[in-house]
Structures are given as structure tokens and as C-alpha cells.
């Protein structure tokens, strides 16, 4: 097969990966913009290299003409979650999306491989628009925790180094490491609520700070510059105290001033100590 044909063949898969990364990243953005916890921590993707495709065809004893039909992972998306509980939430999100259809699911978390590998795999049909019209492709979506991903990355590198024939003493260490990841994920789940509360507080604080600074910037355009500078100074004083309740009160008072502002020279007093 000519290089040009490979490019034509792989281009739609590249488009699918880029679109899906964008969509899942936007899902993260929507959660954070609304102050909601997002089960997706990180999204990445790749299209298999030509050499990897050829290796897999050889391993499965397939012809080039069969690769589109028989290979499920030419396009791959990886979604990383903080907690095991988040994986089922992501799976549910994918199942109910209208822009993709689930072909197959493989639960390697409940039924982990003998090697210790754990992850949740979904094969979906996803349609892209190409120069020649719509094209539906198979995409593999892997969903796993950060711990599972760390183990899998190391194991994959070792499989490549030893050409799928990892020495027994290294296999044993990998199995021990996999067991440790299971314990880690379980312990993280036990303090999940505390971690989520801390992260939500950080996100709320970040959103409030952004809104305050935007409001101050808008006031600077229409209000007395000296008065706006005073407001900004007050904000930095409150910000340095690292007190979320005070920051929320400052935000509310600033909103009242912004909404009620009618003329130049108004007395701005956003914050008063109790």
C-alpha cells in the first residue's frame, strides 16, 4: 500500500481523535463552569502508527484489506479519572451520548487480566465528515484511574522492550505493583468526599476571583478610576486573607455596586470589617 493511501486511510481517524478530545475537554469545562465535580480528570488520544497497525495485523494473521473491519483500536481515546467510582459515571455519559454508539464494552476492572492490567474499554462507532462525505469509524475508549494508567504505561513499555516476553521476575514485580494500585485506589475512594470538598472549594474560589476581576475591569471602563482602584486594593486585601466566606461576601457586595451604579463619583465601599 502506498504512503499516500495510508495517509488517506488514517486522516479520518485523526479527525475523530481530535474531535473527541475536544468534546470531552469541553465536558470538563462545562462541569467546572457550573461549579460541578467532573469525573474526567484528563483526556488524551492517538492514532496507531503504520508500524503498530502492521504488527497487529501480523499478530492476528489478517490482510491489509481487513484492518478497517477487524481492528478496533486504530483510533484511541484515553480518559483518566481520579477515583474508581468516577469510571462508571464516565461510562454512563458515553452510553447516553447521541454522537456515538457503543459497540462493545470490556470490564477489565471487575475482571482484571492475569498480568494485573485493569481498565474499562468501550468500542464506539463515531461519524466524521470528510471530503468524500460522512464516514463512521470504530474508536476505542479506555477509562481508568491515574494509578491504573501509571501501571499500564510501565507495563506497555516493558512489553515493547521484551517483545511480549517479559521475564518472570519482572512479571512478579508487575503483579505486586498492580496489587498495590488496587489498594491505593481503594484508600483514595475512602477519602473521596474529603478530596472532592477540597477541590470544589478551590474551584469555587477560582471562579469567584475570575468574576470579581472581570467586574472590576468593567467598572474601570465606566466609573471613576480612583474609586475602582480602591475597590481593587480592597479585593487584594481580602484575597490575601485566604478566607472563602469573606471572598464570597466581597463578591456579592461588588455585584450590588455594579448593578446599582448610575453616575460618576459614586462612593464605592465594597468591604467593611465586621
Précis, in short:
This protein has 274 residues and is α+β, with helices and mostly antiparallel strands. Helix content is 59%, strand content 16%.
Architecture overview:
The protein has 274 residues and is of the alpha+beta class. It has two domains: 188 residues, Beta Polymerase, domain 2 (2-Layer Sandwich), CATH 3.30.460.10; 67 residues, no CATH class. It is 59% helix and 16% strand. The protein is built from nine helices and five strands; from the N terminus they run αβααβαβββααααα. Strands 1-2-5-4-3 form a five-stranded mixed sheet. A hairpin with a 2-residue loop joins strand 4 and strand 5. Helix 7 runs parallel beside helix 9. The protein is globular, with a radius of gyration of 26 Å. The chain starts with a helix and ends in a 14-residue tail after the last helix. The C terminus is likely disordered.
Task: Annotate the secondary structure layout.
Elements: H1 3-33, E1 42-47, H2 50-60, H3 67-70, E2 75-81, H4 84-95, E3 100-107, E4 120-130, E5 133-145, H5 146-161, H6 168-190, H7 192-222, H8 225-241, H9 244-260
Parallel strand pairs: 2-5
Antiparallel strand pairs: 1-2, 3-4, 4-5
Helix pairs in contact: 5-6, 7-8, 7-9
Please supply descriptive tags for the structure shown above.
9 helices; 5 strands; disordered C terminus; single chain; globular; Beta Polymerase, domain 2; 2 domains; alpha+beta; 5-stranded mixed β-sheet; 274 residues
Strand order of the largest sheet: 1-2-5-4-3
Low-confidence stretches: 262-274
Shape: globular
CATH architecture level-2 label of the largest domain:
2-Layer Sandwich
The structural class is: alpha+beta
Strand content: 15-25%
Count of strand segments:
5
CATH level 1 name of the largest domain = Alpha Beta
State the end-to-end distance: 77 Å
Q: How would a crystallographer describe the biggest sheet?
A: 5 strands, mixed
* Fourth-level CATH superfamily of the largest domain: Beta Polymerase, domain 2
- What count of domains describes the coordinates? 2
Give, in order, the helices and strands.
HEHHEHEEEHHHHH
Rg on CA atoms, Å:
26 Å
Mean pLDDT: 89
Count of helices? 9
Q: What is the fold-level CATH name, i.e. the topology of the largest domain? A: Beta Polymerase, domain 2
How much helical structure, as a percent, in the residues? Answer: 55-70%
Amino acid at each position: 500500500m502506498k504512503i499516500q493511501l495510508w495517509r488517506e486511510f488514517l486522516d479520518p481517524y485523526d479527525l475523530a481523535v481530535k474531535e473527541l478530545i475536544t468534546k470531552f475537554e469541553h465536558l470538563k469545562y462545562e462541569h467546572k463552569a457550573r461549579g460541578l465535580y467532573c469525573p474526567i480528570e484528563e483526556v488524551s488520544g492517538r492514532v496507531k502508527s503504520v508500524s503498530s497497525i502492521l504488527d497487529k495485523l501480523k499478530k492476528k494473521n489478517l490482510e491489509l484489506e481487513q484492518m478497517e473491519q477487524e481492528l478496533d483500536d486504530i483510533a484511541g481515546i484515553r480518559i483518566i479519572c481520579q477515583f474508581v467510582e468516577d469510571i462508571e459515571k464516565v461510562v454512563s455519559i458515553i452510553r447516553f451520548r447521541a454522537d456515538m454508539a457503543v459497540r462493545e464494552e470490556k470490564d477489565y476492572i471487575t475482571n482484571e487480566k492475569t498480568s494485573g492490567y485493569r481498565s474499562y474499554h468501550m468500542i464506539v462507532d463515531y461519524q466524521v465528515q470528510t471530503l468524500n462525505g460522512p464516514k463512521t469509524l470504530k474508536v476505542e475508549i479506555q477509562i481508568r484511574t491515574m494509578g491504573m494508567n501509571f501501571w499500564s504505561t510501565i507495563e506497555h513499555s516493558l512489553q515493547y522492550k521484551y517483545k511480549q516476553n517479559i521475564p518472570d521476575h519482572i512479571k512478579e514485580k508487575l503483579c505486586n505493583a498492580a496489587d498495590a494500585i488496587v489498594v491505593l485506589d481503594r484508600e483514595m475512594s475512602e477519602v473521596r468526599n474529603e478530596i472532592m470538598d477540597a477541590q470544589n472549594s478551590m474551584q469555587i474560589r477560582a471562579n469567584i476571583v475570575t468574576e470579581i476581576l472581570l467586574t472590576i475591569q468593567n467598572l474601570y471602563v465606566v466609573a471613576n478610576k480612583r474609586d475602582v482602584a480602591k475597590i481593587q486594593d480592597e479585593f487584594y486585601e481580602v484575597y490575601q486573607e485566604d478566607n472563602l466566606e469573606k471572598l464570597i461576601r466581597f463578591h456579592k457586595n461588588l455585584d450590588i455596586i455594579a448593578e446599582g451604579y448610575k453616575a460618576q463619583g459614586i462612593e464605592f465601599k465594597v468591604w467593611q470589617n465586621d
